Amino acid sequence: MESNANIKRIAFGVGAFHFLTINELENYDGFDIDDYIEEVRNTLGKISNINNIIIDDENVSLMMETKEFFSVPNQIYIDSEIYNNNNGLSPHPSNLSIKFDLYIPFRIQEEVSKKFSSLSGTEKFKIDIRYGRNFPVTFIEPQNSEIEFNPSSSVIIVREYLKKELKNRSELIKFSCMGPSPFHSNFFVSLEQTEEEWEINYTNEESRGYSKEFFYGNQLVYSSIEEAKEAVYSILTEELGFFYFLNQVDNRRFWNWNYIENQVDSLINLQRSNFKNYFRKITKTSSLLNFLYITIADFEKDELLFKQIIKKRMDDTFTNRNVYFYKDLIEKQQKETLDLPTQQFVQLINLFETRRLNLNEIVALIVSAIAGGSFGALLTMLLSK
After folding, report:
1. Do 270 and 283 meet the contact criterion of CB atoms below 8 Å apart?
2. Helix axes 342-384, 278-318, angle to 10 degrees
3. Could you give the CA distance from residue 320 to residue 274 in angstroms, rounded to a whole number?
């Protein structure tokens, strides 16, 4: 293996991998973060192609601040892997890193990902999963690649291999990921000789398919390429972790909104239907309207909370930082976040509510008239005797 001193450039891809507890962590009796870490270690150790497992949990803590922020009814959370109480992370540790080496023979790469197997150029990979304050960021380095390769293809190959090999390996945790990754780039770190006073320079090269992201460590600051890589990883853990968090929030918003849209469709279809039992139709409409009012109110409350959380995390990620790479990209994504038409839906629901009330008044008048007529007829019969 080539020594670090002789390596001139390190290539890597990024993703978002996580070891998800099958149930919420607090639902396991006596199972805490230390037990979780040990379960991750033991589960990885069951794969013969994984070795050199190193878990740094010296300063690990649990992020719990998102626990109460998502209040839309539970039936909206169609996929528990994405939409649990901590917005997809159970548990949600910070200051945790999980590193291991992985060997995937070319034959197996062909099985798990035929499209990308020829692009990796290697059978050996270094995996580094890091938890900062946001989403976990996974760095995957192809080792000893002897051809011009695409390091992002390594993310896909490793992801698909781990999904297959870690399935049903544990009764407590399972492998999960955000895929396909929303960040499609190939990353490279190298050292640069200069007399200028800077730490890390960054450039990117747009191209068809995956772009290339280049990071240059100043040799006056970093004595080795590994040291420069560590600095880049530390910055990207926070920035890309926040980027993945934003994508997860958007995923969750659209899943929740899709549920609301389906309920509104049910309301519209209900009005089109010809119920034999007219009173049952009115009752069902009333129930659905009440549910939609509450659900949309919860959704709007969550929208406000999302904005507060995102603003705080944006400040935490970029305030008082001299070096950052993707602030502009993240700000652009924030600005492009779609506002969902909650007010228009409320107006539509109000229309149905007004119609329902009018129908109720008509029904009440009819019932009153029938009841009044029946009483009058009965009184006439009694008086005529």
Report:
1. no
2. 160
3. 64
Residue 82, pLDDT > 50, answer no
Q: Which two tokens stand for residue 263?
A: 């309920």
Look at phi and psi of residue 236 and say left if phi exceeds 0, alpha if psi is from -120 to 50, else beta.
alpha
What is the 3-class SS of 106-150, one letter each residue? HHHHHHHCCCCHHHCCCCEEEEEEEECCCCCEEEEEEECCCCCCC
Residue 112 near residue 219 (C-beta atoms within 8 A): no
Rg (CA), the chain: 29
Nearest to 316 by CA among 242, 209, 266, 234: 242
Query: Among candidates 209, 303, 323, which has minimal Cα distance to 260?
Result: 303
pLDDT per residue as tens digits for the range 179-211: 666 677 899 999 998 888 889 999 998 877 778
CA neighbours closer than 13 Å in the CB half-sphere of residue 89: 26
Which has more pLDDT, 114 or 366?
114
